[in-house]
Task: inverse folding
């Protein structure tokens, strides 16, 4: 996935009220950017770090920029939580994720039971429901999810478990938007409930795909599927 417009470079001043960010652009101008990430952003929030913003040409939007990425330890970390969904749909349509290929119909944002799941993929043999999560939390060599307690995330896991029991294929797709990690795992200390639900989901046959993504100011490219520990 390549960015349609050139991103704007700046320096992070602060993040506040969860969804707002003050950024100093290279010309000295201070702008307010929208932060799509509602989590704690632990391990990817550093005041004074380089950031890139995408410009927004929507007269109805109060903020004219959206925060895309931040440089941590000389590597870009993608913090825009909407990008993984776009990447997932594009990659599944193109057959770019090993194990998630061969689908002739790929639809985003599908309402099923009491949830809205991110992707439905179909072919003549099966229907697959896929929930996508953005992963930025790092601890040592591990990429961890979530970075804050997520009741909604547990609900999605419960839905996938039921769908698997009904005969559908069910997948948790974690897009790891940083390259300085080697293994995916649930963040047990942050949300033990989510960890338990994920373990139960795997035992029920829900598949887990943690896919690493290389983030740059030009675009985001999916790479290898990481090993995981539940």
Result:
């Amino acid at each position: 996935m390549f960015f349609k417009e050139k991103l704007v470079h700046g320096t992070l001043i602060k993040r506040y009220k969860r969804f707002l960010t003050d950024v100093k652009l290279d010309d000295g101008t201070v702008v307010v950017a929208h932060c799509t990430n509602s989590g704690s952003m632990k391990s990817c929030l550093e005041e004074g770090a380089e950031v890139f913003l995408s410009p927004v040409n929507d007269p109805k939007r109060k903020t004219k920029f959206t925060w895309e990425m931040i440089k941590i330890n000389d590597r870009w970390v993608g913090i825009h939580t909407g990008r993984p969904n776009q990447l997932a749909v594009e990659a599944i349509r193109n057959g770019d994720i090993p194990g998630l290929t061969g689908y002739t119909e790929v639809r985003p944002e599908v309402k099923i039971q009491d949830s809205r799941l991110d992707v439905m993929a179909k072919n003549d043999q099966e229907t697959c429901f896929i929930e996508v999560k953005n992963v930025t939390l790092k601890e040592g060599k591990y990429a961890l999810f979530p970075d804050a307690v997520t009741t909604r995330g547990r609900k999605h896991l419960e839905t996938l478990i039921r769908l698997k029991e009904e005969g559908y294929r069910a997948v948790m797709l974690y897009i790891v938007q940083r390259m300085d990690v080697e293994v995916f795992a649930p963040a047990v200390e942050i949300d033990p409930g989510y960890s338990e639900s994920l373990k139960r989901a795997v035992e029920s046959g829900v598949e887990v795909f943690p896919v690493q993504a290389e983030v740059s100011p030009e675009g985001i490219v999916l790479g290898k599927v990481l090993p995981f520990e539940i």
User: Anything to note?
Assistant: Helices lie at 83-94, 151-165, 192-203. The longest strand covers residues 8-16. The longest helix spans residues 151-165. The chain has two domains: 8-77, 83-225.
